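Protocol step 4 of 6: structure prediction from sequence.
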Amino acid sequence: MRIPAHSVCTAIRDDIVAGVYERGGRLTEELLARRYGVSRVPVREALRTLEAEGFVVTRRHAGACVAEPTEQEAADLLEMRTLLEPLGASRAAQRRTEAHLKVLRGLVRLGQERARRGNSEDLRSLGGWFHETLAQASGSPALTSMLTQLRHKIAWMYAVESPVNPVESWTEHGAIVDAVARGDGERARAITALHTERSLSVHRLRFGSGGDRAERVRNSQHPVNMPSLRH
């Protein structure tokens, strides 16, 4: 495999998320450089970035290794997401562009169509694209970057099942976009908070004995006072 040097970090991160490299496994510069067809310099830079992001740790006598997050660290990520995604939606209601709205509405139409057909694989990718676009619409590069990193790490630590009712999930997506289009930041925040909280139930930890950890995080959240989606 030969990839551009500036893409090495993305490639290694994607392979860590996909499980190509086991938790705790060594990441040697020489082998990574050979795998991705680059010199050791971009590999070294990528490992430093991934260490700052929490995917890699440097151990004495072992060098760079894939991180081994604890159950509590994994649970913290879900809780951070329940706080930051509503904030992003609220900001998007004030800062979104017509281009953002066009993409969001198109994704909602596709998502609702696929949900009725029961195509779970398409829904997973569409959902990721929806939340990425919503974050970008916040107009905050820092917040967008944090949410993107959270999604990567959550995908690494959790297996995500299909929602019990995908049609309802995409109805919530549509309600978020309606609120964002109207510039109603409080409603966008409230609907996104409910939507994010509900999504916790489909997350299953990939490691450790705490397979119900996401459920415990959900139960620890304060209840969301949610107005009806029908107005």
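Step 5 (inspection) to follow. The chain has ten helices and four strands.
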